[in-house]
């Protein structure tokens, strides 16, 4: 349908799930690997255009819904965007408008089953030079043949008039509807209660999405949007953080079936609801209530989560509980929650209405027994207001800026956490900000609404994730006090090691990254494929397998120089012209052409000429696993006696000239040097490297160069001096 509406479009039909300026953090990959997509729900045609443009529509898409994709969704600049499959996106056109009206005559609400698959990074279709034919998959080609009795071929799509195109669209849509059964239970608007709070937003970001994206798919900065988000404290939660938080809450709840009454006082589009639905059995979620100040967002969120019965209240959470109107109309407020998880808005105190703040402070005194500092940001009032909503014994978990741990205004909140509830855990996410559009550093605070366990202790963790932190300090409750600054708790006992205490790796080796192919799946191939494609030996190189497939510290060579004691693959690395390849190895040439179609557009691949020649990289003498768990530090070094090259899952160590001479003096020296490398301690590694979830530590070449060896073979020192 995309090709019928816009035959010249080069974009692969897709649903955008994540669109953030920041790269996917390492620990998020796990979540993206975990979630399988096996169905998608097509709810019907829609447009991002504002109503009544006489020139017609400039956008037309089919709205989609998917609980599985919601769990992964992150578009910080477009918090209200909906999943969609674009059919038309260009100049305003009468055709697009007619197509929209035509598609509206169908029932839709189709649940389409898909072969189970994961979300993938954006790939563009490689565009062979001069090829301007509409791109159709074999299945789409077949479909076109079927609905037109073979009368219209892909190439004719460029030439047919609008009327024929509309007829074709009708036939295709009819075919779609006859292939897929409608799924009625999903229809409906969702539960939304309007408490008459805010006026709807002046202009929906729903349609600003397309304003901001050019054909290239590059996001144009629009400061105004961001400013607006800052004003409203709208830093939406990355899905990997939401899932981490919910998983942690799950681990805390009684293992027996525990009926959850979930509440999110700043529900936004419901990323915590998505994580909840992914983490718990449906039967365990007894009820779910969200509160959201933005009326339009409330309606969208209620619709998005209608199938789980999420009740969304368009209301001001703080004002409803602490404001002068009190809780008179707050029906939702009477329904106490036993699990509250939220990322409240971080609006600065200066942006808050002074009269309201004054009311909130005195109401907090009455309801919680503590009066927030006048300079408190909005999130502090959220926590105090939630005290009323949380059931006794219930669990609350907040994603907060770390500021409260060391600011003066944070002192009352620290006091609250120590004296009014049972504080269980404080976790600070390491590294740069978790939000792609904000610079705050964030932490999670977890407590139970019950008396503080003054004889117990509180776990402060840092780095990695909540479920798998890098550092943990257990602080006895009686040692914590609100006047003290909590971030001192984290002052690590680890200091980066001095660079020149002994001999560093950089004194002995040139350290380089392994080869980045840009598409290992296609360039790193098995022996079977090599045989099938009859690739001559000079156009391929043996390549080291993943580290877990190398049990020992030494990779031995067979009599041809290939690895002898481990499984290995082949790396395609060839500088011959295509014509030469086609003459000598026609199957291989075909394969390369296919690769080019698939991945020829990727940055790394495109830059190489020819694209199947890899960067020059000699077989390294030693390798170091780029990323691994901390408890296996020494084992990350391996001696490579084979001719195998290494990919960028390794750092490659090439001995400097003096070291090379010393190595050549005796076969035993290689092993002595391996032992020396393996003497690098965990502490040094941890202090120099970057930590990720599950205790994974990654070292960049510069960081590896700076590591000191704890022992150095005597003869080597002499050889160097
Ligand atoms: C930081 S965002 C979090 C959204 C979503 N829960 C997430 O984690 O991605 C805060 C949300 O709270 C809403 N909000 C702001 N002030 C509010 C208030 N006083 N009462 C209820 N919701 C509010 C904003 O519209 C926004 O959707």
UniProtKB/TrEMBL annotation:
Residues in coiled coil: none
Residue ranges occupied by any Type II methyltransferase M.TaqI-like domain in the UniProt entry: 338-430
Protein's name according to its UniProt entry: site-specific DNA-methyltransferase (adenine-specific)
Matching PROSITE patterns: N6_MTASE
| Every Type II methyltransferase M.Eco57I C-terminal domain range | 501-710
Gene, per the UniProt record:
paeR7IM
Per UniProt, the enzyme's principal EC class comes to transferase
Q: Which Pfam families match?
A: Eco57I, M_Eco57I_C
From the Swiss-Prot or TrEMBL record, what is one GO molecular function term? nucleic acid binding
Look up the record and give one Gene Ontology term from the biological process aspect: methylation
Enumerate the UniProt keywords alphabetically: Methyltransferase, S-adenosyl-L-methionine, Transferase
């Amino acid at each position: 349908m995309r090709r019928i509406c816009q035959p010249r479009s080069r974009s692969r039909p897709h649903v955008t799930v994540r669109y953030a300026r920041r790269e996917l953090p390492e620990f998020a990959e796990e979540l993206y690997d975990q979630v399988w997509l096996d169905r998608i729900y097509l709810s019907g045609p829609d447009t991002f255009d504002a109503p009544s443009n006489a020139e017609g529509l400039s956008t037309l898409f089919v709205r989609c819904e998917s609980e599985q994709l919601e769990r992964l969704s992150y578009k910080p600049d477009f918090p209200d965007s909906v999943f969609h499959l674009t059919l038309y996106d260009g100049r305003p056109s009468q055709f697009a408008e007619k197509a929209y009206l035509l598609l509206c005559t169908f029932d839709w609400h189709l649940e389409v089953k898909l072969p189970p698959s994961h979300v993938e990074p954006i790939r563009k279709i490689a565009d062979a030079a001069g090829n301007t034919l509409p791109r159709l998959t074999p299945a789409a080609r077949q479909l076109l043949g079927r609905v037109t009795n073979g009368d219209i071929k892909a190439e004719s799509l460029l030439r047919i008039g609008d009327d024929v195109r509309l007829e074709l669209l009708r036939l295709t849509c009819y075919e779609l509807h006859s292939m897929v059964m409608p799924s009625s239970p999903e229809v409906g608007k969702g539960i939304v209660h309007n408490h008459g709070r805010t006026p709807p937003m002046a202009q929906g970001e729903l349609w600003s999405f397309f304003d901001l994206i050019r054909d290239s798919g590059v996001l144009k900065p629009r400061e105004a949007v961001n400013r607006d988000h800052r004003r409203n404290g709208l830093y939406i939660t990355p899905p990997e953080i939401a899932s981490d938080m919910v998983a942690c809450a799950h681990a805390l709840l009684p293992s027996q079936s525990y009926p959850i009454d979930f509440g999110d006082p700043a529900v936004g589009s419901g990323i915590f609801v998505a994580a909840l639905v992914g983490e718990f059995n449906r039967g365990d979620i007894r009820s779910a209530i969200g509160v959201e100040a933005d009326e339009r967002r409330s309606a969208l969120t209620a619709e998005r989560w209608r199938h789980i019965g999420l009740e969304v209240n368009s209301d001001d959470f703080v004002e409803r509980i602490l404001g002068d109107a009190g809780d008179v109309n707050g029906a939702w407020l009477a329904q106490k929650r036993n699990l509250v998880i939220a990322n409240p808005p971080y609006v600065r105190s200066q942006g808050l209405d002074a009269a309201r703040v004054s009311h909130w402070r005195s109401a907090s005194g009455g309801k919680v027994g503590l009066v927030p500092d006048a300079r408190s940001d909005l999130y502090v009032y959220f926590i105090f207001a939630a005290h009323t909503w949380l059931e006794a014994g219930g669990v609350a978990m907040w994603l907060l800026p770390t500021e409260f741990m060391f600011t003066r205004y944070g002192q009352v909140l620290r006091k609250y956490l120590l004296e009014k509830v049972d504080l269980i855990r404080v976790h600070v996410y390491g590294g740069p900000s978790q939000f792609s559009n904000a610079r705050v550093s964030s932490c999670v605070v977890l407590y139970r609404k019950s008396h503080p366990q003054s004889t117990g202790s509180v776990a402060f963790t840092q780095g990695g994730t909540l479920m798998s932190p890098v550092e943990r300090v257990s602080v006895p409750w009686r040692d914590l006090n609100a006047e003290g600054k909590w971030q001192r708790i984290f002052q690590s006992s680890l200091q980066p090691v001095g660079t020149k205490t002994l001999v560093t790796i950089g004194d002995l080796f040139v350290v380089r990254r392994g080869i980045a192919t840009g598409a290992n799946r296609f360039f790193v191939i098995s022996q079977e494929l090599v045989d099938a494609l009859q690739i001559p030996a000079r156009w391929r190189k043996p390549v080291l397998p993943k580290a877990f497939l190398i049990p020992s510290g030494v990779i031995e060579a067979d009599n041809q120089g290939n690895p002898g004691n481990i499984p290995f693959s082949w790396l395609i690395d060839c500088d011959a012209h295509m014509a030469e390849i086609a003459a000598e190895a026609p199957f291989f040439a075909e394969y390369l052409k296919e690769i080019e179609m698939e991945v020829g557009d990727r940055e790394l691949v495109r830059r190489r000429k020819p694209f199947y020649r890899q960067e020059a990289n000699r077989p390294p003498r030693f390798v170091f696993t780029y990323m691994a768990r901390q408890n296996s530090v020494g084992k990350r070094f391996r001696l490579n006696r084979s001719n195998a090259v290494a990919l960028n899952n390794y750092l490659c160590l090439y001995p400097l000239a003096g070291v090379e001479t010393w190595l050549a003096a005796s076969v035993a020296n290689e092993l002595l040097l391996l032992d020396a490398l393996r003497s690098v301690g965990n502490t040094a590694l941890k202090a120099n490297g970057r930590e990720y979830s599950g205790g994974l530590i990654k070292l960049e070449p510069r960081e590896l160069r700076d590591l000191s060896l704890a022992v150095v073979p005597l003869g080597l020192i002499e050889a160097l001096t």
